[in-house]
Amino acid sequence: MNNFTLFGDICYNTTERTLATATGAYLVCLDGKSAGVFDFLPEQYKHLPVIDCRGQLILPGLVDLHVHAPQYSYRSLGMDLELIDWLTLHTFPEEARFEDLAYAKLAYEQFIADIRRGPNTRSVVFATRHVPGTVLLMDLLEDSGLITMVGKVNMDRHAPAPLVEHDAATSLADTRAWLREVTGRYKRTSPILTPRFIPSCSDALMEGLGEIQQELSLPVQSHLSENQGEITWVESLRPHTMSYGHAYHAHGLFGGDVPTVMAHCVWPSEDEFSLIKKQKIWVAHCPQSNINLASGIAPVRRYLEAGVPVGLGSDVAGGAHTSIFRAMSDAIGVSKLYWRLMDQTAAPLTLAEAFYLGTLGGGSFFGQVGGFAAGFEFDAIVVDDREIPGKHNLTIPERLARVVHLSDERQIKRKFVRGVEI
Ligand code: GUN
Ligand code: FE
């Protein structure tokens, strides 16, 4: 039922730097997993139905390692502000509205319709601090066919009254209630612990989240060292902590045995960089958000050289676009500015490296995801790049460059997630 073959021009990363390409080749799906890429279809697969995508590109589905579902409604607004003012003036008032389930339903449906049309197949998602709204978002995402990790946000300080949680005990009780409700409820949707960031979370809240993590072995997502003013604020809130990253680590919420993704990581101190590396933190690089909020440029080359797993995030609404093709294009662009203006030893990202970040790099947070080698989960998109005006008769990597920089959702013709077409 779930077994078939896709025929077309195939491209995926085998390593950070290398693309595998195959023109007029077969990609076999068995039980939701890739059985490999073949120039000639092996005898044992000849009985499978063939989906003919001749002349089109077959690529791994893209992975958004960091996105805020409730912020979709106001993306592109307030972009003349920096992080803390933008949170205060735009984010917190909007997120407060998600107390209202009817409002939440409309807003979340718009967000999901957008990502369903686009190239992303998996996302790691912030909801809001509200339990009913978060469960609703998870129900809607489950129905979408996409695969996601979703977090009820924890925030018990430094936000206005309708949004801030009453105290640590309330936040923790809500988190436990949410987890009771969603555990075992879905096939494609799973919970992830989500302390918003250190300024939003008291020490008591962080302590309690660490206990929940220990009990339930959940993954963790948060923000780290995004903006210089934010980092100074964290230093004043936690004067005895060695770095911003150490503030999560102090509560067992920073990698090691705990799969952890931290958005941004733009301004790591030496101590923080070492801890990110030691604890194998996934860095969600969010270049468009870092441009829009004038946060800075993350040292992605340094992370890659250190063997730190890096993926890409849209960070909607810091970023205005959900597509991870756009994040790849922006990641290449900002890496050139970083090299030119900040560190001439940090070579700009190549196209293959940017494609790696948005597929295998982020995909590794979900397991064997983001490639087509045998055994990988079968997430694939079919892109008709012939529709993009301009030069044709190009090599597959050249065609990929046009897709990364120029395509939009109209060229995404088919989309498969874990072997199921959506
Ligand atoms: N830091 C804390 N909350 C947020 C948020 O919603 N967006 C971004 N970009 N950074 C944050
Ligand atoms: Fe964010």
Structural class: alpha/beta
Biggest pleated sheet? 7 strands, mixed
Uncertain runs are: none
Strand content: 15-25%
Task: Kindly describe this structure.
Helix content is 36%, strand content 22%. It is built from 13 helices and 17 strands. The chain has helices at 83-96, 101-117, 131-144, 168-182, 203-216, 228-237, 244-249, 270-278, 287-292, 300-305, 324-342, 351-363, 396-406, and strands spanning 4-13, 19-30, 33-38, 50-60, 62-68, 120-126, 147-151, 153-154, 189-191, 194-195, 220-224, 260-264, 282-285, 310-312, 380-383, 412-417, 420-421. It has a 7-stranded mixed beta sheet. A 4-stranded parallel beta sheet has the order 5-6-7-9. The chain has a 4-stranded parallel beta sheet with strand order 11-12-13-14. Helix 4 runs parallel beside helix 5 (203-216). The longest helix has 19 residues, at 324-342. The radius of gyration is 21 Å and the shape is globular. The mean pLDDT is 98. Bound molecules: guanine (GUN) and fe (iii) ion. Guanine (GUN) is lined by residues 68, 83, 87, 91, 196-197, 223, 226, 289, 315, 318. The site of guanine has 11 residues, from helix 1.
Q: In a few lines, what is going on in this structure?
A:
The protein is α/β, with parallel strands linked by helices and 422 residues long. 36% of the residues lie in helices and 22% in strands. The model has no long low-confidence stretch (mean pLDDT 98).
